[in-house]
Amino acid sequence: TQEAVALLRRASDITPGDSRLLNNLGNALRSQGDAPGAIEAYRSAVASDARYVNGLYNLAALLHDQGALDESEICYRRVIALEPADVGAWMELGLVLLDQGRGDDALACFERAVALRPGDAVCHYNLGNALNAVGRPDDALAAFRRAVAISPDYAEAHHNLGAALRNAGDREGAESAFREALRHRPDYAMARVSLAALCEQREDYAGAEALLREALAADAEGRTRLLLALGRVLLAQARDQEALEALKQALQVDANDPEARLAVANLLLTTEHLAHQAADIAEQVLVEHPDHTGAQAVLSRAYLASQRTSAAVAACRDAIAKNGNVADLHCNLGLALRQEGDVRGAIEAFREAIRVEPTFAEAHSNLGLAYQDAGAIDRALECFREALRLDPALSIAWLNMSQARRFDDADLPEIARIESLLDQGDIPAVNRINLHFALGKMLDDCKRYEEAFEHYRKGNAAKRRLVRFDADYYRAWVARIREVFTAAFFAERAGLGEPSERPVFVVGMARSGTTLVEQILASHPAVFGAGELTGISEILVELEGSAGAAYPGFVPALDEAAIREAARRYLDALRSVDADAPRVTDKMPTNFFHLGFIALMFPGARIIHCRRDAMDTCLSNFVQLFREGHYYAYDLGDIAAYYRGYEQIMAHWREVLPIPMYEIQYEALVEEQERISRELIDYMGLEWDARCLDFHRSDRAVRTASNWQVRQPIYRGARKRWKHYAKQLTQLESDLECVDGD
Fold first, then answer.
1. Which of 10, 335, 644, 689 has a CA between 20 and 30 Å from the CA of residue 725?
2. Counting beta carbons within 10 angstroms of the beta carbon of residue 104, is it exposed (0 to 12), middle (13 to 18) or buried (19 or more)?
3. Which tens digits make up the pLDDT trace of 64-77?
């Protein structure tokens, strides 16, 4: 109380230098929440008596609480110098060292504590945590077993025993340990969260939800953690509004804690379509804490996830200008630059991230991706291997490695390593998805098709829970596009756009050969291959905002000035990627939705439509884990619905587009490369150049899922690939027969 503080201050004035009075004053100030005042009092106490152990203890503990780890360590070491057999000091020092990331030093402290007091359960518990930190899980498991044997009612030890069993693949033992923790401490939130996570792993979302709601109803401790876990479970069930309500409550519990708010933002980022809400949270944290590097990193990732690439680049550059020693920020800048197509800039950013933090495994993996874009496959593989050396469980590195080369039976040990990672139990959904897709690709290469499909099935099912595709909305949207862009619509607006012949649009289903076609075209000296540009979509989003109506509803109201302005903006974007080439290709496949708007803007544009066997196309989408978008691709029924809409809209364009469209069949290109390539170049209005036949020798950057394949000569093995999975694709085949019959 204030009165106690006043009395202690007066007593200290009467008896200056009394270390015990000063220590008691520190205790009183600490109980009032005055940490700086308490630290000052404790400092005075130990200054008066350098051998005063209680004062050193209290000062060390409060410094630890306040994050002053180096000074806290010094104080605990002073205690140990005075009292070498003080078990508590050894344990507290170990905890400080763990927080500093010095696992080996912490382990030595806990081993000393156990030697001094072998019958103390807390000593064994802390020893187990340190053993985990230094990568000795089997020894950690043994330490937790000793802790609960010594103290059977030690809830935290039962919980960590459960976590160790879960990581060892013993889910039944883990569940038993978590329940034992709850039996001894019914309000233990972490044990309920861990039990709920086990339910999630076996897709028992109802069980997970019941556990979490029961704890919340009982007003258990750790409410924020419980609400975050509930939000995750609800998102996995596509119950977005309920999830957002749970996360809103989590924000209210810790309204002033930026870390709690960023935890909510990070959870939202696991579900891509909620990235805008994650950005809103990070932006608000930065208003209140402008230099919060964690918020800056979350904001840039949120911008990336919501396709606001330019904003992501700007956010990263702004944050780096304030603090250039945060590897995460350089890594996010690299991701944003790569998404913009600036592969050289991305490589520089990833290298800078590694310079700042040499052991940053994910930065090494991302650097490998950028090298793969640039065609430096061997360097890419070196980066992926280094990432996995630093972090053998880094799922994205395994996925990237799987996509960068072909595998065979000699690689079975690597496949077994990934399978063992999946057996570890409680790993995040995103990591599990990456590992399933990596295994699917590797096993497909090894011709173990049934096993491969099972991993693809599991990976897709998990990914489908994180994205949203509404087939009914999609069908209505496709119908609306067909209603707006009619032959009469184009006749009434003939000649409104820009006459430029620079733009060349390569469209089609994803995985239909668009990358191969662009690589052939870009091998011609008069063509620049710009890759997948987002310019058309960005223009349409801005027009939607200004019109207050969704695409395509606002298009009929656009006048000539608006159409020409949109066209000029797009041409400016082309000039920013290449100023000189007579033709620039934009191979964003989904521009097939926007061909009507494109024809309106550019009556002289060229449109190349890539087609591929329907079954091969749909399978290729199903087995590809896309970096962003393509939400239809994670369920075979959704893929069939999407393909139906694609076929309908392309049939419509054939009837009404006022400009000629060149259609190319992938299988024909594979069989008759030179004939089709010559036709393509002729359609482009260019003279033939033999370099188009050696497209795989081009050193241009390619930032798509096909970047490895287009570095090889034309490969015929992908035709009728679906027949390897015919047994699993009977329903898809039936659905696509219906499409063919429309």
1. 644
2. exposed
3. 988 899 999 999 99
The yes-or-no answer to whether 188-255 and 471-741 have a common fold is no
Q: Cβ of 399: how many Cβ atoms within 10 Å? A: 24
Band (pLDDT 50/70/90 cuts) for residue 391 is very high
Which of 25, 88, 89, 33 lies closest to 65 in space, CA to CA?
33
Q: From the options 1.25.40.10, 1.10.10.60, 3.30.300.30, 1.10.287.70, give the CATH code of 1-83.
A: 1.25.40.10
All structural domains of the chain with their residue ranges:
1-83, 101-185, 188-255, 392-464, 471-741
Task: Give dist(CA 700, CA 376) in Å, integer.
Answer: 11
CATH assignment of 101-185, given 3.60.9.10, 3.40.50.410, 1.25.40.10, 1.10.150.130? 1.25.40.10
Element (H, E) at 96: helix 87-99
Q: Is the pLDDT of residue 701 over 60?
A: no
H-helix or E-strand spanning residue 607: strand 606-611
pLDDT bucket at 710, cuts 50 / 70 / 90: very low
Assess whether pLDDT exceeds 70 at residue 178.
yes
Closest CA to 622 of 708, 702, 728, 715: 728
Phi, psi of 289 (to 5 degrees): -135, 80
Helix (H, G, I), strand (E, B) or coil at 608: strand
| pLDDT tens, position by position, 142-171 | 999 999 999 999 999 999 999 999 888 888
Q: Which residues contact 528 (CB under 8 A, 6 or more apart)?
A: 522, 577, 578, 580, 581, 583, 584, 585
pLDDT interval class at 708 (50, 70, 90): very low
Radius of gyration in angstroms for the set of CA atoms belonging to the chain, rounded to a whole number: 31
pLDDT digits (tens, 9 = 90+) for 52-65: 888 899 999 999 98
Render pLDDT for 600-626 as a digit per residue (tens, 0 to 9). 999 999 999 999 999 999 999 999 999
User: In the CATH hierarchy, which top-level class contains the domain 188-255?
Assistant: mainly alpha
The two structure tokens encoding residue 372: 């793969």
Distance CA 458, CA 460 (A): 5
Question: Which of 3.40.50.970, 3.40.50.300, 2.60.40.60, 3.40.50.20 would CATH assign to domain 471-741?
Answer: 3.40.50.300
